[in-house]
Design brief:
By secondary structure, this protein is α/β, with parallel strands linked by helices. It folds into 2 domains: 220 residues, Spore Coat Polysaccharide Biosynthesis Protein SpsA, Chain A; 81 residues. Strands 1, 2, 3, 4, 5, 6, 7, 8 and 9 form a 9-stranded mixed sheet that branches. Helix 8 packs parallel to helix 10 and helix 9 packs antiparallel against helix 10. It is globular and about 55 Å long. The two termini are 38 Å apart.
Length: 311
C-alpha cells in the first residue's frame, strides 16, 4: 500500500497544471501515488494529464460536480493511502515535500493536519506591487511561521490549502470536507481549512506547521489587481458567515460583530492613508465585512424551516 497520496484538484488551470504534476513525479524518499481530480474543466486539463499517464504513479479522475471540497472528497475516496496530501494546481512541490509529511505523521500518532511553508512565485518581469501588504500576500498563498516545526493551537494560523495534508482516519471520522465551504468555480468561498483545524483541536488531535514541507505558489497576473483582493475578501466574509452557521453561532450578534469590524477597517484605512499597503489592506478587510453582513442579514430574514446548508 502507498504511504501517502498526493492529490491535485484542478479546474481550468491547464497553464500551470503540468508543472504541478511534474513536481510530484519528482518526489523523493517515499512510496506514493498521484491523483489528479479534474473538477469539471473545459480547457485542455485532460490532455495535460494524459500526456503523463504512462507514469505508473499517476491517476486521472473526473469529478463533474463543481466545488473544491467535493473534489477533495472524491480524491480521498479514490485512494486507500493513510495520509492525503493536497497540492494546488498552480503550485510546485519541493522534492522532499511528501517525505517530510510522511515522517511527521509516522512520528506523531495524534497528528491530524499538517502543512508547510509557502513561498510566492511572481510572474516573469513583474515585481510585487507596493500596495500589497504582508497580510494580503497571505491571501495569495504565502505562509511562513518560521524555520522550526510549530504545533498550531490557533485556528487562524492553520496551514494553507495549497500545501495541505490530513490523516485519513481523521477525515473519515468527521465525514469528509464540508461541501458548503471551499471554492466553487468563480465563487471564492474559503475557511474550510480553518474549520477543519477547529474540529481537530476540539477533538484532541494535533495540527502542525512543517517548514521543510516547502511549496512554491505561482501568482497569476490577474490576481495582482485591487479588484481581485476586494472580491476575495467579500467571499471570505461570506465564508465566515457560513462557518458560523455550521457551528450554530448565528443571530443578531452577527450584525454587531460585522458592523464593528466594518467600522474598524474603514477607520484604519483612513488612518494609514499615507501608507498604501496598510490603507488598502484595511479597506479590503472592511469590504469583506459587507459580504459577511449581507449573508448574516439574509440568514436572519430566512424562516428557520426554510434554512438548509445547501448554499
Amino acid at each position: 500500500m502507498y504511504e501517502i497520496a498526493a492529490i491535485i484538484c484542478t479546474h481550468n488551470r491547464d497553464r500551470y497544471l503540468g508543472d504541478a504534476i511534474d513536481s510530484l513525479l519528482a518526489q523523493e524518499g517515499t512510496n506514493y501515488e498521484i491523483l489528479v481530480v479534474d473538477n469539471g474543466s473545459t480547457d485542455t486539463t485532460k490532455q495535460v494529464v494524459e500526456s503523463r499517464l504512462s507514469h505508473p504513479r499517476l491517476k486521472y479522475v473526473y469529478e463533474p460536480i463543481l466545488g473544491l471540497s467535493v473534489a477533495r472528497n472524491t480524491g480521498a475516496q479514490e485512494t486507500t493511502a493513510p495520509i492525503l496530501a493536497y497540492l494546488d494546481d498552480d503550485a510546485i512541490a519541493s522534492p522532499q515535500w511528501l517525505r517530510v509529511l510522511v515522517d511527521a505523521y509516522q512520528h506523531q500518532e495524534k497528528l491530524a493536519i499538517a502543512g508547510g511553508k509557502v513561498t510566492l512565485i511572481w510572474p516573469e518581469g513583474i515585481s510585487p506591487p507596493q500596495w500589497i501588504s504582508e497580510d494580503l500576500a497571505g491571501g495569495l498563498g504565502a505562509y511562513d511561521l518560521g524555520d522550526k516545526m510549530v504545533s498550531i493551537t490557533n485556528p487562524q494560523l492553520t496551514p494553507r490549502g495549497l500545501n495541505y495534508s490530513l490523516r485519513r482516519l481523521f477525515l473519515e471520522k468527521i465525514g469528509g470536507f464540508d461541501v458548503n465551504l471551499g471554492r466553487v468555480g468563480k465563487k471564492l468561498l474559503s475557511n474550510e481549512e480553518l474549520f477543519m483545524t477547529e474540529l481537530a483541536l476540539t477533538q484532541g488531535w494535533e495540527v502542525a506547521y512543517l517548514p521543510d514541507a516547502l511549496v512554491g505558489h505561482n501568482v497569476s497576473p490577474e490576481r495582482l489587481k485591487p479588484g481581485w483582493f476586494l472580491r476575495r475578501s467579500w467571499w471570505q466574509g461570506v465564508s465566515e458567515c457560513y462557518r458560523e452557521e455550521i457551528a450554530g453561532r448565528t443571530g443578531i450578534v452577527q450584525l454587531r460583530r460585522g458592523g464593528e469590524r466594518l467600522m474598524r477597517g474603514l477607520y484604519k484605512s483612513l488612518k494609514y492613508v499615507t501608507n498604501p499597503a496598510l490603507s488598502f489592506d484595511n479597506l479590503v478587510y472592511a469590504y469583506g465585512q459587507i459580504g459577511y453582513l449581507k449573508e448574516a442579514i439574509q440568514l436572519l430574514l430566512t424562516p428557520k424551516n426554510n434554512k438548509n446548508t445547501n448554499h
